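hey m, so remember when u said the tokens were messed up on ur end? i reran from scratch. heres the input so u can diff it against urs
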Amino acid sequence: MKLNWIVASTLIALLAAPAASAHEQLVDSSPSAGETVAAGVIDIELEFSNELLDLGSGAEIIVRDDMGEFVPATCAKIQGTFALATVDLDKAGEYQVGWRVVSGDGHPIEGSFSFSVENTSGYQAVGIQEPCLIATQDTEEAPGFSYWLLFGSLGLMAAGLFLYLRPRNKKSA
């Protein structure tokens, strides 16, 4: 019976413990989320909490306009804790930046933010000299399989714990 309580308390402690999150995270961006910048050549700089892996591919910075169309940008460059890209924008409006990089521990991390452009000077974009060719896949995140796996396994563990700890009928012979 003592073993049952040890098993039950261990399971409860494991289920109640918060998950460890040691992955790098975005700590700053330029332009920052929600910022309004002047039209022109805009350097997108993303700063992370630790150094990123530069694998030659796997790092992406994608920019879309307010109609959801891709805006030509340079390929993402990794420099230590920074991911960098450049866009040339003349159209006023809101722009969405989607990014994906590989953290120092080898795990991909991703996110997005928006900023706005205003063009009061009449600037006309000349375009990026060497735009990065990125597959035009939808960057919207679907609910992850890992969440369903997590919640499904928690349900199975609860059912198993219930069956293990339930009172048993003892038949006398």
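this time it looks ok to me. The chain has a mean pLDDT of 80. if urs says something different then somethings off w ur setup not the seq
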